[in-house]
Specification:
This protein is mainly alpha-helical. A two-stranded antiparallel sheet has the order 1-2. α3 crosses α4. The chain is globular. The N and C termini lie far apart (73 Å). 37% of the residues are buried.
């Protein structure tokens, strides 16, 4: 490799790094614009929503309290007295509560919520940006795609109007699509590895929002059926790889979310009757 080629490679790597830094800065500014900069570190002002912000504050506070007191965060006696409530039937944003617990314990759940609603779309956008780059999309288009995904109408509405943290934190959706594609649509690499990563993404999404996980299943299964139906020769040639990916994904997902599934079905204070006619 000649000297000029080396300089071009170094220049390209530097420009890419600067683009990534610029992307993170732009995403951070856009995240703050959802609610403004003024109340970012407020410990008393709850963002205006449709009332679900109060539930989000309670959820963050409850998870931090449960962790600090060595209690089970999946069940609480702080509501529906005297029986208590199995939180697997609610939307407690458990994984978000765990991630935010240091901030919640030190500064309180209101400040944690204020930080999260500005941070979540940035992380969502960054996740899509990274996955698009993995798919060899040009860096400029990957940046645009990340911003559209992280700050599009769905995320903006869920945060800007409803304060639905669990529905706006989509960081695991792009890598789920990536490893789903690697495992089943365009198999490449080791099936066990891709399957394990796919199962891990599914398991983590379970603890963020079961609703979004169900949406993934509704989209993913028909996509897989159609894809394999259109290329049966490909299906026959990769049956063994598909089987290994499926087994690995199932095992990985069950390790991460198996206890939550068990607790929802058989845990204390679960819903075991018709809630509404």
């Amino acid at each position: 490799m000649n000297r000029s080629q080396e300089w071009r490679d170094v220049s390209e790597k530097t420009s890419h790094r600067l683009f990534v830094v610029g992307f993170v800065l732009v995403a951070g500014i856009l995240g703050c614009l959802l609610y403004g900069f003024g109340d970012l570190f407020s410990t008393s002002k709850i963002p205006i929503g449709n009332g679900d912000s109060s539930q989000a504050v309670w959820s963050l506070a409850w998870v931090a309290h449960a962790l600090s007191s060595a209690s089970n965060p999946l069940v609480t006696r702080s509501m529906d007295l005297p029986n208590g409530a199995n939180l697997m039937f609610n939307t407690p944003e458990l994984l978000l509560g765990v991630l935010a617990s240091p901030l919640t314990i030190v500064k309180g759940p209101v400040l944690a919520l204020n930080v999260l609603i500005r941070l979540l779309p940035c992380l969502t956008a960054l996740s899509m940006f990274v996955v698009l780059r993995k798919w060899m999309v040009r860096i400029e288009l990957a940046g645009l795609g990340g911003l559209i995904f992280g700050f599009g109408p769905f995320v903006f509405a869920q945060l800007g109007e409803f304060d639905h943290l669990s529905l706006a934190f989509l960081i695991f959706i792009p890598p789920t699509a990536l490893f789903f594609s690697r495992a089943f649509i365009r198999p490449q690499g080791a099936p066990w590895r891709d399957g394990l990563w796919l199962g891990a993404m599914i398991g983590l999404q379970f603890w963020i929002s079961i609703e979004m996980l169900v949406d993934l299943v509704i989209v993913g299964i028909p996509t897989l059926v159609v894809s394999l139906s259109l290329d049966r020769a490909h299906l026959k040639a990769n049956r063994s790889a598909y089987l290994r990916s499926t087994v690995a994904a199932a095992l990985s997902a069950l390790v991460i979310c198996g206890y939550g599934i068990y607790f929802a079905m058989f845990g204390p204070d679960r819903i075991n009757h018709v809630v509404q006619d």
